[in-house]
Design brief:
The protein is α+β, with helices and mostly antiparallel strands. The protein has a single domain, classed as 3-Layer(aba) Sandwich (Protein Transport Mog1p, Chain A), CATH 3.40.1000. It is about 20% helix and about 25% strand. It has a seven-stranded antiparallel β-sheet with strand order 1-2-5-9-8-7-6. It is globular. It comes from Actinacidiphila bryophytorum. This is PknH-like extracellular domain-containing protein.
């Protein structure tokens, strides 16, 4: 491990005015009906996927993960469990660089923040919609975590060199917890089509669900390189290389994309930290 983000993720991501930097073709958008149908299948099968790039794994990979991409985690509330969030989201609710240092990334990580609208998740799965176009609302907090200093002119939370991008989080508040839960479910279901892809194309793995307390939960999917996709879905038992998570705490909700090549154990720790902070 060299502590730097992985080079050439190849996820076919297109965020806020920049096209995919990898050689991986972006999947076409799915019609709403297809997404809903796929969502039903995905929920039944427990699969929700993130696109891994073809090529070498992320050098930033932290500690190896255990349990594989298909693990399902459910923890019950205890005395130290976080309380569901209320009030507006602030930058204090967003994930910071220290979380990645805790899972083994040693390169200095910078944060770039902005508030407004923009592309919020993996465009290869959700399309190049903005959060406002999908859910409405006054705006969201965007944070980019990166090892480089050059950022996209249209969005400072996106690194010009994708190899510098460690993670990106988009968080906002809903009017009430029930609406935040609805938003989180919709955002998660948008990623379902990327659980299936032609062999050789990156694909998301099964969903892992983490519940820290009532109203405080997250679901994340690991990303798998195209070289590991031999049957159209993520390989069972293989380690992911980063991934995507949808978080919900009370009236707060967020999408976290992890570009650093983290295995299942490290991803679980990052998601737990982000959820506890949200």
């Amino acid at each position: 491990m060299n502590g730097a983000p992985a080079a050439g993720r190849g996820r076919g991501t297109a965020r806020s005015g920049y096209a995919a930097r990898s050689g991986c073709a972006v999947r076409p958008r799915y019609a709403v009906a297809a997404v809903v149908a796929a969502a039903a299948c995905g929920l039944a099968a427990g699969r929700f996927v993130l696109p891994p790039p073809p090529g070498s794994p992320h050098p930033a990979a932290a500690a190896p993960a255990t349990g594989g991409a298909s693990a399902h985690v459910r923890t019950t509330a205890g005395s130290g469990s976080p309380k569901p969030a209320t009030g507006p989201v602030t930058t204090a609710d967003l994930l910071g660089p220290a979380a990645f240092g805790a899972v083994g990334i040693t390169a200095p990580i910078r944060t770039r923040d902005r508030f407004g609208d923009g592309v919020y998740a993996n465009a290869a799965c959700a399309g190049e919609k903005t959060l406002g176009q999908t859910l409405g609302g006054p705006g969201a907090h965007f944070r980019g975590l990166m090892t480089g200093t050059r950022t996209d002119p249209d969005d400072p939370t996106v690194a010009v060199d994708h190899a510098d991008q460690v993670a990106r989080e988009v968080a906002a508040e809903a009017q009430n917890p029930a609406l935040a839960q609805n938003f989180a479910q919709r955002l998660l279901l948008e990623e379902v089509p990327c659980q299936d892809a032609p062999p050789g194309h990156w694909v998301y793995g099964r969903t892992t669900t983490l519940e820290l307390a009532p109203g405080v939960s997250a679901s994340w999917m690991g990303s798998y390189q195209g070289s590991l996709n031999t049957g159209g879905t993520a390989p069972e038992g293989a380690e992911p290389c980063g991934g995507i998570a949808v978080l919900r705490s009370g009236s707060h909700y967020a999408v976290l994309e992890v570009d650093a090549c983290l295995g299942a154990d490290a991803m679980s720790r990052i998601v737990r930290t982000a959820l506890s902070q949200l």
